[in-house]
Design a protein that fits this description.
- There is one protein chain.
- This protein has 9 helices and 11 strands.
- By secondary structure, the chain is an alpha+beta fold.
- It has 3 domains: about 140 residues, no CATH class; about 90 residues, no CATH class; about 40 residues.
- β1 and β2 form a beta hairpin.
- The longest helix is centred in the N-terminal third of the chain and has 25 residues.
- The protein is globular, with a radius of gyration of 24 Å.
């Protein structure tokens, strides 16, 4: 693979780029294929913006369902601590998620041979025998739910062996007080990424990795520089000077001689503060909130129009006083 030509869709995590392309092409939704910059949907026509928004809402809905399905059955390797899924669970779940028109009673729809073929084509990844890497499983489960029509060919035929698992958002350290651009960043992370790089994603399942901090149902966030100590606690490898560039207020705390011992804790607090402006409510919830606001507005207008003419001026005057 020529890495200069790769690109990602961080808004559709945990879907790898080939899965996103395959789904978009089937639905005839155009996409940007030659840049690492995030596609500006507002530059599209109104019709295409609506289709993109619908696709994004569906991804948000399906990945949240995927997280709910997978988290209770997630297991961790005893040596590496990495999360994995048993093949039997994936086969059963995909059979249940098959479009109703293609279900055939008790006949097995997804066989062990099918999973083996997907692994050979790098659509699924293994940690060890009988251990399917959790993020690749999540991508497959999300893709199955997004294609509600096809029984076959709902996955791309193959994926390059070194294809990133999924993409997150990244932002380098501010320069001269000005924020750096937000760009997609591939997972696994590059070892050359500066430790002070800020990373975030709307994919809550990123929190299965302890180096990602889950922020409720909004997603997860982290610093690029992170490691686990001997007790399994996360430690941030971000310098005090870099933290000052990210958050001057948090690093102005007077901790005296404890400051250097608590630097990792300060980095964690700064991370949570930055999450407030990086992780917004899902588009699905924002869309619902807008509709509820419009409904309340219409209801208020209707109630006002039903009031007698003598009372309306008084109501308007009271509102003006408020």
């Amino acid at each position: 693979m020529k890495h200069a030509a790769i690109y990602g869709f961080p808004q559709f995590a945990p879907l790898a780029t080939p899965l996103v392309r395959h789904l978009l092409e089937y639905q005839e939704i155009p996409f940007c294929s030659g840049s690492l910059h995030i596609l500006q949907v507002e530059h599209l026509s109104e019709q295409l913006r609506a289709r993109w928004s619908l696709f994004e809402r569906r991804v948000q809905e399906k990945r949240q369902r995927t997280y709910t399905l997978m988290t209770p059955v997630l297991q961790k390797d005893g040596q590496t601590g990495k999360p994995y899924i048993m093949p039997g669970w994936l086969r059963e779940t995909l059979s249940l998620l098959m479009p109703p028109a293609h279900k055939r009673g008790k006949k097995e729809l997804i066989t062990a041979q099918t999973l083996s073929m997907w692994s050979e084509r790098h659509l699924l990844r293994h940690l060890a025998w009988g251990q399917l890497e959790a993020q690749s499983v999540a991508g497959v489960v999300v893709a199955r739910q997004l294609d509600e029509i096809r029984e076959r060919s709902w996955l791309p035929s193959t994926v390059d062996a070194d294809e990133p698992q999924w993409w997150c958002y990244s932002q380098a350290l501010p320069i001269d007080g000005k924020p750096s651009p937000v760009v997609p960043c591939p997972i696994p992370l590059s070892t050359h990424l500066p430790p002070s790089t800020l990373l975030w994603t709307p994919w809550v399942g990123a929190g299965w990795d302890p180096c990602w901090v889950q922020i409720g149902s909004l997603g997860a966030i982290r610093w690029a520089g992170a490691h686990l100590d001997c007790q399994g606690r996360i430690r941030w490898d971000v310098s005090e000077a870099d933290l000052k560039k990210w958050d001057s207020e948090i690093t102005s705390l007077d901790l005296g001689f404890l400051k250097y011992e608590m630097l990792s804790a300060i980095a964690h607090i700064a991370l949570l503060r930055l999450a407030l402006t990086r992780l917004s409510p899902p588009l699905l919830l924002r869309h619902k909130a807008v509709r509820e606001k419009e409904h309340l507005s219409k209801k208020s207008t209707t109630e006002l129009s039903s009031v007698s003419p003598d009372v309306k001026p008084l109501q308007m005057k009271l509102r003006t006083l408020d």
